[in-house]
């Protein structure tokens, strides 16, 4: 049985990477078309910020914990398959929205379902792959997220030549149901095959994870990092398409191609480099991961300002590639640093907690605050209001860089044998 699990590691990683790609494709369709949605549904930037931000993030966080708690003891591939199917239907239902509240309900369904697949998948992968490949596996999944972010923009931009936003939601949403079925039928799940001990696995709770973080100085610094960095990162991602359309007068096809390509170059390379460096140098010295993450975040700050304030579209794109590459270096190593400091049975719940911080801070605050800042600067800057809004949010990268370095300095890894 164990050999069967080993032979299906690659297939399972590929399927879960495809799930990660799909989740961000569904999100990015909204960001590319949000100005069209704004006009058709009669919204302002603050309402757009709510739809892309706090409304999405709050339900993402609320749903993550109960699903992750089940994933820590139940059939994880079933969790993933059900979540993928639900969010695919929610994406398709977005095409039927005719006002703010209907779109809000569709976004809530999307958020709640997407919250479950990530922690379940991370728990499964870190179990079936050996310790020495863990950071690489985590970074492959993060790179898949990046492919979804960039590919979603490119795909939506390409489809926009022939279809409006409603048709595109249907086109990208419905195929996910089949992907969910493939995960359930083909992915490895040791718990269903009797590979693990017959005793029920230990359970963890959100409170246990939060108490663990509160009692561990390194994880407290990680929490600060996760409250800061996603604010900038998701503000750039969620408002990037509108930024290039408003500030640099790009059309949707150009935006999808150039911004999608810039995301792919920065995010995919950043995650893969982070995985390689983390496994090569941080495997034996987990504290190294914090230093590596912090240096990347500090370097990213000036390029974040350059992206927001550049007067030329291609200079802004070049800065965007660099800032996404350097700031992306932090996440895989930081997740590995967290996993090195908690017992094995807590990993899915820890992953859900990390996602909660990222969701509330990034999608919630980043997307929402950028919208409100844009509205605040509109009387003075007009259509250029996103420039000062995104420049202000760039300063969160400095705080995140310091927090990452301190997380590495204060890390207290536990032995692999003590994690069960």
From TrEMBL:
Topology within the bilayer: Multi-pass membrane protein
Bilayer-spanning residue ranges: 51-71, 78-98, 104-125, 137-159, 165-187, 221-244, 256-278, 290-309, 315-340, 352-377, 389-411
InterPro entries: MFS, MFS_dom, MFS_spinster-like, MFS_trans_sf
This protein's GO CC annotations: membrane
Subcellular localization(s) per the UniProt record: Membrane
GO terms, molecular function: transmembrane transporter activity
The keyword Transmembrane is annotated on this UniProt entry: yes
Recorded superkingdom: Bacteria
A Pfam family: MFS_1
Keywords: Membrane, Transmembrane, Transmembrane helix, Transport
Main location: membrane
Matching Gene3D superfamilies: MFS general substrate transporter like domains (1.20.1250.20)
The protein's name in its UniProt record: Putative MFS family arabinose efflux permease
